């Protein structure tokens, strides 16, 4: 079957990388049929849809996922919509929504929504009604590059979650906290699965731990500053995460009773977050020495660093190798580099 994902356009590489990582760790085989700005079309095995709801729930850089029912050139859209057996799909109330992904289409979206809605109405049982507020079946149409994709929505990603959990809305706030969306994306890039253990050795206000906790990971956080430890615990409790351990420790000397499945972290940049008077490069180098022993053999680490840090230098002589990188421009003088590391 074919599914379409409406990807966030806020970053050129992160949304696709996140989808790939999550499908991979959930064991879903896929083939990328098409990739255009903001739209990804995948072919997945027929038996996969049951697993898709868990996948959709954990994504952060995707807006919506739908199963493709019709794929045609735009001019043939209404004709094909008339021929489609809608009574197999629409069993109770429904809505049709159209999204133009570029300026090429000549369609007026609200007129097209109305026209498609009427065609469907003529092809289903007479008691079935349109419900624009909360339909049981949501028909999504996407117009892009002269083509139309029509499908049934499988799920959408809640913007509200990422908005409600913004760092300044949590009980404990400290400048330099990471956005929940990026934190979730970084967690996903490590390919961690539900029930596995994730470590953030520079946990600050606990934003990464919260996102990992929400997708069902057990979380361990440490920070050298006791104020942050207390604050992280307060934030985790506020977000309903109970399976956590957070304690005060120096990442350079960290030891744990057993290995973790993933590490996600955002160490100090030497600007806003305290490095306790130490140069970032040395802090990173020493921390990597202890962290490489704490990660399981096939585990991944996802790390946010400033562009000016020599990450290759930091990793030299360690068991880590960079497998992918994404650059996020924060402002004129800072680009964040998100790196996924594997153990060699
Ligand atoms: C950039 S902040 C982390 C922000 C976090 N991602 C958040 O969303 O709040 C870096 C944190 O590293 C901590 N830190 C600095 N040196 C450390 C060390 N040697 N070991 C552990 N934590 C350290 C700081 O106290 C700070 O809370």
UniProtKB/TrEMBL annotation:
GO terms for biological process: tRNA methylation. Coiled coil: none annotated. Keywords: Cytoplasm, Methyltransferase, RNA-binding, S-adenosyl-L-methionine, Transferase, tRNA processing, tRNA-binding. Its EC number is 2.1.1.213. It holds the Pfam family THUMP. It is found in: Cytoplasm. The keyword tRNA processing applies. PROSITE patterns: N6_MTASE (PS00092), THUMP (PS51165), UPF0020 (PS01261). It is an enzyme of class 2 (transferase). One of its GO terms (molecular function) is tRNA (guanine(10)-N2)-methyltransferase activity. It catalyses: guanosine(10) in tRNA + 2 S-adenosyl-L-methionine = N(2)-dimethylguanosine(10) in tRNA + 2 S-adenosyl-L-homocysteine + 2 H(+). Monomer. This is tRNA (guanine(10)-N(2))-dimethyltransferase.
């Amino acid at each position: 079957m074919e599914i379409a994902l409406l990807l966030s356009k806020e970053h050129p590489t992160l949304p696709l990388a996140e989808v790939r990582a999550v499908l991979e760790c959930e064991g879903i085989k896929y083939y990328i049929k098409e990739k255009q700005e903001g739209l990804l079309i995948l072919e997945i095995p027929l038996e996969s849809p049951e697993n898709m709801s868990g996948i959709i729930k954990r994504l952060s850089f995707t807006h919506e996922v739908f199963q493709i029912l019709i794929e045609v050139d735009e001019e043939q859209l209404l004709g094909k919509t008339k021929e489609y057996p809608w009574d197999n799909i629409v069993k109770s109330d429904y809505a049709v929504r159209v999204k133009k992904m570029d300026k090429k289409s000549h369609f007026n979206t609200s007129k097209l929504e109305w026209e498609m809605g009427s065609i469907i109405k003529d092809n289903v049982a007479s008691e079935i009604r349109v419900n624009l507020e909360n339909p049981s079946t949501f028909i999504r149409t996407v117009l892009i590059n002269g083509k139309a994709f029509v499908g049934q929505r499988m799920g959408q990603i809640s913007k509200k979650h990422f908005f409600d959990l913004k760092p300044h809305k949590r009980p404990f706030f400290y400048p330099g906290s990471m956005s929940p969306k990026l934190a979730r994306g970084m967690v996903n890039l490590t390919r961690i699965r539900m029930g596995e253990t994730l470590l953030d050795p520079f946990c600050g206000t606990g934003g990464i731990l919260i996102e990992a906790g929400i997708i069902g990971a057990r979380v361990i956080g440490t920070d050298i500053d006791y104020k942050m430890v207390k604050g992280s615990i307060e934030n985790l409790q506020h977000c309903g995460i109970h399976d956590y351990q957070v304690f005060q420790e120096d990442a350079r000397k960290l030891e744990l009773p057993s290995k973790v499945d993933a590490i996600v972290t955002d160490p100090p940049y030497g600007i806003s977050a305290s490095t306790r008077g130490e140069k970032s490069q040395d802090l990173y180098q020493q921390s990597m020495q202890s962290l490489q022993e704490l990660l399981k053999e096939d585990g991944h680490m996802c790390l946010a660093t400033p562009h000016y840090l020599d990450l290759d230098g930091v990793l030299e002589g360690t068991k880590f190798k960079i497998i992918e990188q994404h650059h996020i421009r924060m402002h004129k003088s800072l680009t964040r580099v998100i790196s996924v590391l594997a153990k060699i």
